[in-house]
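Now for one protein, fold included:
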Amino acid sequence: MFIVVRHDITNQKGFFGAAEAVTKGVPQGIKVLQFLPSTEGNEAVCLWEGTSVDAVKSYLEPKTAGLSRSMRS
């Protein structure tokens, strides 16, 4: 399943500092396919592939807590 996550970035330095770490050590069954930040750095859209929305959410939300607010579709 493909999952699109839109991040409203609230802490740019922290978010972009964590972005590389988030894409390493991803659990089996989850894979980030694209990371598309805005020019201004206040939002980003990511395309994930995963077994479920909940699987991606449970992996991603703790890693971006306090750095962004996420909306999934």
The two ends are 11 Å apart (CA to CA).
